[in-house]
Amino acid sequence: MFKTIIRTMTSQYAKRSFGNAAAVTNKMDLQQEAMLRENCYLVDEADNIIGEASKRDCHLVQENGYIPLHRAFSVFLFNKKGDLLLQKRATHKITYPDCYTNSCCSHPLSNFEEEADENNALGVKKAAQRRLQFELGIHPDSVPLNSIQYITRILYKDEGDGKYGEHEIDYVLFIKNDVQLKPNPDEVSEISFIPRKEFDNFAQSLSGHWTPWFNLIMKSRLKYWWDNLDNLDEIRDHEKILHLK
């Protein structure tokens, strides 16, 4: 059984840590391996679906550095005060373990036909609902599809540890709501709600421990987006795909 520890930080944000003495179990490893058999959508640089491949094949770094380009999403969940939920990925995650990142990150899967719906990114939003429930215990009723705001897309590549990396067109999704959280310890080891004014200090304290996609967003767009949280038309762009390096 995982013990929840709640600590109030001097910067006025709360962090919850989840852990036990056993740390990584065979069951968790098997679950991570099973998810590598799920199928992601392969896309071209214009985000047209051109096929599908297992999650494992989508993330394997080939000898020449090639990683198949595939579709993904990143959720930025804010509470009604405007604080951003960040998570720390669990130690036994196959890609980017123990790294801090945005609220929830994953992929629409071809295993679920409805997640291919491209009308206003509806399929990606449905995938986000599914993954928010799996990773953070958020019931879909708490994040209805009309509350999930599709902001833009980014394209980036990172070779990770040399075995598994990322090459994604990543849909950026915003949600602003107060929700009940019950993090899945197979996926998440810590969660933190960070106020905008405390973010710079928090980011500096974790230098070198971010996922690559969040690090690129953080350096290029996050503050601007965050400052327009109540004016999303200012930041929404469904035409261009931002190439971040």
UniProtKB/TrEMBL annotation:
Q: Which GO terms fall under biological process for this protein?
A: cholesterol biosynthetic process; dimethylallyl diphosphate biosynthetic process; isopentenyl diphosphate biosynthetic process
Which residues constitute the signal peptide according to the record? none
Q: Mind listing the UniProt keywords for this protein, alphabetically? A: Cholesterol biosynthesis, Cholesterol metabolism, Isomerase, Isoprene biosynthesis, Lipid biosynthesis, Lipid metabolism, Magnesium, Metal-binding, Steroid biosynthesis, Steroid metabolism, Sterol biosynthesis, Sterol metabolism
Which reaction(s) are listed as its catalytic activity? isopentenyl diphosphate = dimethylallyl diphosphate
Pfam families in the record, alphabetically?
A: NUDIX
Looking at the record, the residues that make up the Nudix hydrolase domain are 68-216
- Provide any one GO MF term from the record: isopentenyl-diphosphate delta-isomerase activity
Annotated metabolic or biological route of this protein: Isoprenoid biosynthesis; dimethylallyl diphosphate biosynthesis; dimethylallyl diphosphate from isopentenyl diphosphate: step 1/1
List required co-factors. Mg(2+)
Family, as annotated: Belongs to the IPP isomerase type 1 family.
Q: What does this protein do?
A: Catalyzes the 1,3-allylic rearrangement of the homoallylic substrate isopentenyl (IPP) to its highly electrophilic allylic isomer, dimethylallyl diphosphate (DMAPP).
State the protein's name. isopentenyl-diphosphate Delta-isomerase
